[in-house]
Structure to design on (679 residues):
């Protein structure tokens, strides 16, 4: 088997034995023969085999076929055969990826009581070298078996461990013998101790970690690094067996909704992006933004993966209306998935999720989680139309045309208390909803992506740094370069306040060109004044107390630069300063920053605003998709001067005329997805 990623017309595609494959893939914990056959006959040729005996978070088996890994070097290959053969009976010419769950099994934990359960306590298990070695043996053995019995059928291996197979530390632990020994080795200091729970909850500067908290900082980096090193080790083992196999994983969740982002081991995206052995990265659609009343978003920075030539797969797994009677679906709907009342709602949601991915030039798979999600021929046909739309969209040259870059700084994340990172919660996680409503797309990157020679600074007109409390020197130099170039920049909270473990308000002015200070008064809501940086038409309140995120920051500029103040304490909460050399520096004390503030800032930066109605939209050089929550007429301003827009799912067509808006009529909760054809 020889599989690889190729860049074709600007998008990444999977090539298997010299043939570029259709994009869409299908997976299921409990694959049903009939649905597998239906999707295969509809054109889906990439499917996933998932042998596992582990119980999922609902305490039911991931696989209905049973356990195959019985001991060190011991396997029940009939379990694997049963699943592969079921697929082959219903999708005979499909190609398969192997989702290989390498978590510790009960038999291993019994033989190695010093090791923790990797599904619940990932970093602690990663400190057990015996587990890592036996897992690598399993990789070699199952690949040899598949090569022997199913030659030329498996094109990829997705290495999985940690909670829900996603390299997540489900239950952060305190002291553990192997972990402390590994921590000593990691720091090179045999006297080091793991931080106590009390130490992990207390920062030298409130919720910011200073020089006195170096042990906690090192610990947060350590648990993320050892999880990454284990993932990288497993990925490399696959490549050692056969470099012609693609390797993927679930990870890179830098935008995930979790105040414990560091302790949950979501903090190694930078290293993941740089790893040459890992070519495909998966993330479920963001759980926070699945509702029909919301926007669609990934948990990962999709633009960063495209920049690094890694194929991003969006996992569309939300329950459909067909599955509402399924008891497992009902459990998921109680906390993670959103219930759809009709076929129409499921279709419109699927189109919106796909449009989100199309805008970022990624791809997706349909995840029939516990079986029956797609047991409806009409729904299947509509989903297959989305795949056909993707093939058409990516068949010609295509590129991002976003003009806003949002850049996340992992180095700074390790300088915020790991158990309660309110900065991430308010300025990253909750901010995604507002970014999705500003009237244009934003590309999401890691901050260090801007250091790459291939980063296209000419494309982006507004740079947003939501969490850069402690930028490293190369990032400080990069931001100085951006300002010298006349780029427009928006900072949130306390940009640059920490340097080498020291907190100094002067560092913030040096980074941003804005005078900022520490506010001793309680930080409450901010009031955006009716003016140039609030297009709502009236004074509007936003933000809040950021749940006690200290230190509180306020502006100290001349009042002419202040465009929002505290509702109660009247301190400056938003500053916008134009530079003499062009461009502006802007700062806002707290997130999430609402779309009625983001939009005028983007407009001032010269960003093209496609729509003014605060509804979700997604676009690239060949597409514009709009999702309307309310029925009505909406105005669309496109950057193209000629040509036409064709809805990829209906026969709706609009001729583009220079400087003339396009008027669109929507039903409630409707997604339109137009392909742009040059005239």
């Amino acid at each position: 088997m020889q599989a690889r990623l190729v860049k074709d017309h600007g998008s990444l595609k999977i090539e298997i034995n010299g043939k570029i494959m259709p994009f869409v893939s299908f997976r299921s914990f409990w694959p049903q023969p009939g649905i597998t056959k239906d999707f295969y006959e509809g054109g889906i040729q990439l499917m996933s085999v998932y042998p596992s005996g582990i119980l999922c978070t609902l305490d039911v088996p991931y696989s209905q076929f049973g356990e195959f890994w019985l001991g060190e070097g011991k396997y029940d290959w009939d379990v694997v055969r049963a699943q592969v053969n079921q697929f082959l009976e219903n999708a005979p010419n499909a190609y398969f990826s192997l989702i290989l769950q390498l978590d510790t099994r009960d038999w291993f934990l019994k033989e190695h009581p010093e090791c923790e359960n990797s599904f619940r306590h990932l970093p602690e298990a990663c400190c057990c070298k015996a587990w890592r070695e036996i897992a690598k043996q399993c990789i070699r053995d199952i690949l040899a078996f598949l090569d022997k019995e199913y030659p030329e059928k498996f094109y990829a291996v997705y290495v999985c461990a940690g909670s829900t197979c996603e390299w997540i530390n489900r239950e952060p632990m305190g002291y553990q013998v192997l972990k402390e020994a590994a921590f000593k080795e990691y720091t090179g200091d045999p006297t080091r101790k793991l931080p106590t729970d009390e130490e992990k909850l207390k920062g030298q500067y409130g919720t910011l970690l200073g020089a006195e908290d170096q042990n906690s900082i090192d610990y947060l980096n350590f648990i993320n690094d050892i999880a990454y090193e284990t993932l990288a080790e497993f990925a490399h083992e696959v490549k050692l067996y056969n470099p012609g196999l693609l390797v993927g994983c679930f990870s890179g969740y830098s935008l995930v909704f979790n105040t414990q982002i560091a302790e949950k081991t979501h903090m190694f995206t930078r290293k993941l992006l740089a790893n040459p052995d890992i070519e495909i990265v998966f993330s479920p659609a963001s759980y926070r933004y699945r509702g029909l009343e919301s926007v669609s978003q990934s948990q990962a920075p999709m633009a960063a993966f495209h920049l690094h030539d890694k194929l991003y797969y969006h996992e569309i797994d939300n329950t459909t209306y067909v599955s509402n009677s399924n008891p497992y679906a009902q459990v998921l709907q109680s906390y993670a998935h959103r219930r759809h009342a009709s076929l129409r709602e499921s279709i419109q949601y699927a189109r919106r999720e796909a449009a989100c991915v199309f805008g970022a030039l990624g791809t997706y798979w349909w995840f029939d989680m516990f079986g029956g999600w797609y047991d409806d021929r009409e729904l299947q046909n509509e989903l297959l139309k989305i795949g056909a739309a993707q093939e058409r969209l990516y068949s010609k040259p295509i590129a991002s045309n976003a003009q806003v870059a949002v850049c996340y700084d992992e180095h700074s994340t390790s300088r915020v208390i790991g158990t309660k990172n309110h900065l991430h919660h308010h300025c990253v996680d909750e901010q995604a909803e507002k970014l999705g409503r500003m009237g244009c797309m934003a590309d999401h990157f890691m901050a260090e992506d801007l250091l790459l020679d291939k980063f296209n600074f000419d494309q982006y007109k507004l740079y947003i740094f939501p969490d850069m409390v402690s930028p490293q020197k190369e990032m400080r130099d990069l931001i100085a370069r951006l300002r010298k170039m006349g780029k427009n920049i928006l900072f949130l909270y306390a940009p640059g306040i920490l340097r080498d473990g020291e907190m100094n308000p002067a560092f913030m002015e040096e980074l941003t060109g804005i005078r900022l200070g520490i506010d001793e008064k309680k930080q409450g809501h901010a009031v955006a004044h009716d003016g140039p940086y609030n297009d709502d038409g009236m004074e509007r309140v936003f933000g809040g107390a950021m749940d006690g995120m200290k230190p509180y920051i306020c502006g100290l500029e001349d009042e002419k630069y202040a465009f929002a103040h505290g509702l109660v304490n009247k301190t400056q909460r938003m500053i916008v300063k134009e530079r003499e050399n062009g461009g502006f520096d802007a700062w806002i004390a707290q997130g999430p920053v609402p779309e009625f503030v983001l939009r005028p800032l983007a407009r001032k930066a010269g960003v093209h605003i496609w729509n003014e109605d605060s509804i979700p939209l997604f676009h690239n050089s060949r597409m514009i998709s709009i999702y309307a929550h309310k029925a009505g007429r909406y105005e669309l301003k496109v950057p193209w001067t000629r040509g036409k827009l064709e809805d990829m799912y209906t026969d709706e067509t609009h001729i583009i005329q220079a400087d003339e808006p396009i008027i669109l009529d929507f039903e409630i909760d409707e997604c339109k997805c137009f392909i742009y054809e040059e005239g």
